[in-house]
């Protein structure tokens, strides 16, 4: 997959820079062409000679090469690669690229790059958590940069926490996946809702359901692999949010919180896919103390939750595509068609509780795609395969719009 691919590898001045040696080795072994650019301070952490030897190309760092007397043209560097990777991405370079500063060759090449850019941030845990870094990371994602998220572990400072750069093997996997998948959604932003909501009754009890989040997460992963920037708003799930540079998770508990988070994100989105099993009702009062056992009956008064899918369907702009799910137990197709119309969706993915080995919690699903152009059954398959078919169908709908 990587043979002949041109990768511009930007290395900045952080202790994790020494790991770039391993990444260059893996990329070259996979027959990619690698051109290394270093910020001036990066050479204090890793030797340009080692990188030049491994990449079989001179390492660039300054605009002007005093040895050859040549000018290192950042515009040419920006046009050359199929992918630019910056690893480690320090807090300093992050802040600079977000603000368009170009006071070194690497930054000027970033601003000139026409190809997608992937970054692997690395910094101390407090720098990573700092509101300033949070703001810069949010902007970076809006700028369509692929982020290979840092992990939790021992840091160079001796502290333990989040900020440790993803290992070179993981970076290599992300780069390979990037070239493997059809990148049909580059530049698109997708909102996915996933999992259940929990509607508090008192401090220890809630109304919930059996959704694990697997269906929504599979959709998020497929969209991310195709190049979209994906925001997943999920309730309290048992499945793990897929780890992919393009996926940002927003964890919520109740339908009201999910509704609010979705409304905040939706204006920037091209698609919304509502796979969450949102509670239609919530207790009108949340008791502050645990309800004591008393009498033979307990009556709870429930009030209606806002319908997120319906709100998005009603408020969307022309270019936005809205997809809902329907979990039915009877008159499945008719109910799904009603939801398509009422919630002003482009597509409803119907799954029936009557399908064996599918739906809630299962790794598989069996669905019917219901749109104004007809109904198609998708036989039982893994949720990832179902998600691929759903995303194919949404792409097709978009072309027909
Ligand atoms: O999470 P898993 O274990 O993988 O299970 C997957 C799933 C079964 C939860 C999923 O495939 C599914 O069917 N999700 C939708 C379940 C559901 O709540 O269906 P519904 O028919 O009640 O709702 C219709 C649509 O309106 C859904 O898109 C739902 O997200 C949306 N909705 C519903 C109520 C509400 N207040 N707000 C909403 O947005």
Give a description of the structure.
With 401 residues, the chain is of the alpha/beta class. The protein contains 13 helices and 21 strands. Strands 14-13-10-15-18-19-20-21 form an 8-stranded mixed sheet, with helices on both faces. A 5-stranded parallel sheet has the order 2-1-5-6-7, with helices on both faces. A two-stranded antiparallel ribbon has the order 3-4. The chain is elongated. The mean pLDDT is 94. Ligand PMT is lined by residues 193, 195, 211-215, 255, 274-278, 280, 305, 307-309, 324-327, 339, 351, 359-361.
Task: Supply database-style keywords.
binds ligand PMT; alpha/beta; 401 residues; five-stranded parallel beta sheet; eight-stranded mixed beta sheet; elongated
Question: What's the quick description here?
Answer:
32% of the residues lie in helices and 26% in strands.
Output the strand order for the largest sheet. 14-13-10-15-18-19-20-21
Structural class: alpha/beta
Rounded radius of gyration (Å): 24 Å
Count of strand segments: 21
Residue fraction in strands: 25-35%
Unreliable stretches: none
**Number of separate helices:** 13
Major β-sheet profile: 8 strands, mixed
Ends distance: 33 Å
Percent range for helical residues? 25-40%
Compute the average pLDDT.
94
Shape: elongated
